């Protein structure tokens, strides 16, 4: 699927590799197979997808495939969304103005790589999101950038993001690891966001060699255990009136989103 221009639709490109209609209930894991289905060895390359009501690129049960060099922008859902996928490479893509995240491994995605992508996070809750039992994935060499830290206050800087009852300024979380384990987050650049890297309800992840510049928290570890955090550069420059933390460990408060 190469070199197309897709706009003003619900979902830009969808690969459905799950087996029956009952799998369409993505609100729970009930009814999903343990392994991906029929969509395999697919290349999605160099497409431009704009103004979608849903995801720009949606892979459900996608296997042994490549998503490369696409632009996904102005979406009502994820820019690129992987669910129940296995050994999919997401590389060299650009996403902008997609909610709730630029790139997501949303549910039970395994042994996938997200490398060399750029997420423009202005007004977005998350840049890259690993969520709901996604494991043994690699997130490496990506850029998630909001408004540059140190930029003067103005219209862009005042844009708010509401998430779980918390108000974030301009851009929310650069890389969010939620209820996922055995993932490697390495060599990423996260700049101009409220929270650089968030790890919640997750275990046995490796977070190493990332460079973060944030307004509120550099690294937020929330009800999580047995993660290795090493050799990261974390720089926090709080907005006036805020109290920033380079690393915060929270084991008491419930996860708000």
Description:
The protein is an all-beta fold and 257 residues long. Helix content is 0%, strand content 50%. The chain contains no helices and 26 strands. The strands form 3 sheets. The chain has a 16-stranded parallel β-sheet that branches. An 8-stranded parallel β-sheet has the order 3-6-9-12-15-20-22-24, with no helix packed on it. It is globular and about 45 Å long. The termini are far apart. Mean pLDDT is 83; it is low at 20-34 and 150-159.
Which spans have pLDDT < 50 for at least 5 consecutive residues? 20-34, 150-159
Biggest sheet character: 16 strands, parallel
Query: What percent strand?
Result: over 45%
Structural class: mainly beta
User: For the terminal residues, how far apart are their CA atoms?
Assistant: 35 Å
What is the overall number of helices? 0
Range of helix content: under 10%
Radius of gyration, in angstroms, nearest whole number: 17 Å
- State the total count of DSSP E strands: 26
Order of helices and strands: EEEEEEEEEEEEEEEEEEEEEEEEEE
Shape: globular
Average residue-wise pLDDT: 83
């Amino acid at each position: 699927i190469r070199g197309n221009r897709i706009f003003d639709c619900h979902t830009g490109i969808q690969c459905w590799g799950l087996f029956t209609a009952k799998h369409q209930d993505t609100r729970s894991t009930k009814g999903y197979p343990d392994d991906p289905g029929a969509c395999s060895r697919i290349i999605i390359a160099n497409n431009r997808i704009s103004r979608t009501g849903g995801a720009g690129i949606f892979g459900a049960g996608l296997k042994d495939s490549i998503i490369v060099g696409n632009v996904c922008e102005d979406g009502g859902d994820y820019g690129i969304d992987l669910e129940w996928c296995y050994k999919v490479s997401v590389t060299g893509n650009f996403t902008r103005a997609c909610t709730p995240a630029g790139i997501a491994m949303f549910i039970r995605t395994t042994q996938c790589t997200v490398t060399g992508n750029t997420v423009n996070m202005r007004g977005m809750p998350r840049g890259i999101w690993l969520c709901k039992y996604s494991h043994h994935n690699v997130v490496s060499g990506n850029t998630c950038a909001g408004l540059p830290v140190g930029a003067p206050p103005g219209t862009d800087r005042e844009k708010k993001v509401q998430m779980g009852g918390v108000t974030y300024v301009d851009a929310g979380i650069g890389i969010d690891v939620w209820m996922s384990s055995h993932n490697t987050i390495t060599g990423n650049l996260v700049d101009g966001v409220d929270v650089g890297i968030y790890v919640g309800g997750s275990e046995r992840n490796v977070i190493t060699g990332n460079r973060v510049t944030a307004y509120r928290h550099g690294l937020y570890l929330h009800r999580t255990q047995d993660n290795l955090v090493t050799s990261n550069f974390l720089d926090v420059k709080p907005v006036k009136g805020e109290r920033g933390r380079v690393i915060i460990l929270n084991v008491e408060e419930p996860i708000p989103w």
